[in-house]
Amino acid sequence: MISVRGLRKHYQVHQRPPGLKAALRSLVHRSYTTVKAVDGISFDIRPGERVGFLGPNGAGKTTTLKVLSGLLHPSDGEVTVDGHVPQKREEAFLKKIMLVMGQKQQLLWDLPPAETFELNRAIYDVPQAQYKKTISDLIELLEIGDLIVKPTRQLSLGERMKCELAAALIHQPRVLFLDEPTIGLDVAMQATMRTFIKEYNEKYGATLILTSHYMDDVAALCPRVIVIDKGLLSYDGGLDALVQRVRPEKRVVLRLSEEVDAARLSSLGRVVTHESGTAVLQVQQEAVNATVTRALSTLPVMDLTVENAPLEEVMSELFAESKARRTAASEPVPA
Amino acid sequence: MKVKRYLRLLGIQLKASGLLSLQYRADFFTEGLTSLFWTFTALAPLFVVYSERPNLEGWSFGEALLVVGWFTLLQGILEGAINPSLTGVVEHIRKGTLDFVLLKPADAQFLVSTQRFQPWRAFNVLTGVGLFVYAFMHLGRWPSVTGLLASVLLLGTSTLLLYSLWILTVSAAFFVVRVDNLTYLFTSIFDFARWPSSVFQGVGRGVLTLVFTYVIPLALMTTFPAQAMLGRLPPQSLVGAVVGAGLFAWGSRQVWLRSIRRYTSASS
Ligand SMILES: Nc1ncnc2c1ncn2[C@@H]1O[C@H](COP(=O)(O)OP(=O)(O)O)[C@@H](O)[C@H]1O
Ligand SMILES: [Mg+2]
After folding, report:
1. Does A149 touch chain B (CB under 8 A)?
2. Does any CB of chain B come closer than 8 Å to the CB of residue A26?
3. Atom 13 (ligand 1): residue with closest C-alpha?
């Protein structure tokens, strides 16, 4: 469905000095630097897959999505989406895809979302009958019946985002790019969006790429993740396998019926936290069984669970790792 | 088929603008009053000049009134149908939402050019027409049918010319600013607005209005149609205006297409 080969996108950035005078002078004498936003990445995505893009800020996730949706021309490399070359921006291609950006909105600000829907219906040439059906489905799934007749500016961020998603789906895109669709939303709204996105993917078999700041989004939605860091692909595979690789240790969470000496806990494994009757231990995977057995026999355990390290931690460790590798690589060789 | 689709799109965009302006119904009266005020301001020197002589450079009072009428009418078209969309594009570029326009399977130039109208500006158009009627009453005759047709044609070319200049201005922004730095340009312009506010307020719009209304060959846009109404326009001028406007529109379209190709949107 999507094929990316050696994609590069370099921006020429004009160095803009501070101050009005310097800024004016720089209009004549311009200095440019090259930002390698995406620096040679390759991957393939099958139809109907849900893939998460992970990476720290400035990694090149948005840039990649924009190239995939035809908004940016790649500096180098080959990209096809369902047989189309995105940058040609053919109508047939544009009718198949959509890019949703959590930080930007297409809804007309002063008019009710219903007007934007109507406009999109006409732009995408959606037949009236299909439009009615899609809209009523979307209204029901997203519970936006009352919202779409109010001016957009009167809606809360979460309500707006739901309508934004509806506006993006009127033409039933087969490929959906979601760039931080849940940014700024509260936990309940994030969960609603997640459920909806998953339902859309399952119902229409749409291919989906998602970037998000919230690891929970990715964990809940994407069996496969692609990690991008500084424009380079550093991991492509299952989320579980990624966690396994970066942080093979497990966490044993103990709820204790009475206070226990810190020393007794640390004899079982590394204590991550220990407060008010709950202790979290980190142990090697092979040692999980033994630790659990020992904990149950030696401690007043009310409840015990074994978990993976939180995704946030896994990620920051992954990024710290690759950063360390980069600095090591760029260390000057002593003469 | 294509034409039909775009006409339908235009209809929807117009409807949206209409709904919007209904939200600001009070504007109807302010627009009306402002339009009348400016018309009379523009007329005042005319009255002064013609109170001393019957004729100026071959133009009688009634004939000069026609020129003012065309000026008023074109101003209404400019501010009602062209400027609002210009402001809209600048906003799109600033907020990075031009991306959404480019994602649509329809001509981007069409979409941005029809995104916003200010229907209340039709008041200027009506004022212009009112001036025509008054002028001809003053002249004591009516225009010929061919003269009228020619002037309507010239209305078309003048509008096309204004619109093409508008497209060129927007495209120039894409080019001059090395694309990736487009946002910088507009933030810089807005930076100015933050200075002594009373001095710079609305400089962006003010300058554009100035350029569009005065710097552009006014003769072509106001004098030609007035002459046509009077039946005094040489046929070759008419042909020249049509061909010229057509070429200009074509050229600006080419520039627009190239600049869109260079557009890279702001990072988010
Ligand atoms: N239009 C642009 N002009 C110049 N540099 C840009 C532009 N867009 C993005 N960048 C730079 O490219 C890099 C990648 O940005 P982006 O793709 O937005 O990252 P992400 O979405 O992963 O946070 C960043 O260093 C960013 O500053
Ligand atoms: Mg981003």
Report:
1. no
2. no
3. A37
- Shortest distance between the Cα of A232 and any Cα of chain B, in A, equals 18
Ligand 1 atom closest to Cα of A55? 22
Cross-chain residue pair B95–A23, CB shorter than 8 Å: no
**B265 touches A at CB < 8 Å:** yes
Q: How far is CA A309 from CA A243, A304, A312, B227, in A?
A: 8, 15, 8, 82
> Which positions in chain B touch A89 (Cβ < 8 Å)?
102
**Calculated CA dihedral for residues A64, A65, A70, A72, nearest 10 degrees:** -40
Q: What is the pLDDT of residues B131-171, one digit of tens each?
A: 999 999 988 888 889 999 999 999 999 889 888 877 877 77
Sequence ranges of the domains in chain B: 2-262
Burial (CB < 10 A; 0-12, 13-18, 19+), residue A194, is buried
What's the CATH code, domain A248-307?
Answer: 3.30.70
**A11 ligand 1 Cβ < 6 A:** yes
* B268 pLDDT higher than 60: no
* Nearest chain A residue to B266, by CA: A63
| Every domain of chain A and the residues it spans | 2-243, 248-307
> In sequence order, which residues have a C-beta less than 8 Å from that of residue A71 and are 6 or more positions away?
A99, B99, B102, B103, B264, B265
- Closest ligand to the CA of A58: 1
> Which amino acid makes up residue A153?
R
pLDDT in tens, A205-239: 999 999 987 788 888 899 999 999 889 998 899 98
Q: Cβ of A25 under 8 Å from any chain B Cβ?
A: no
Total length of chain B: 268
| Cβ contact B124:B76 at 8 Å | yes
Instruction: For the full predicted model, state whether its pTM sits above 0.95.
Output: no
Fold of domain A2-243 = Rossmann fold (3.40.50)
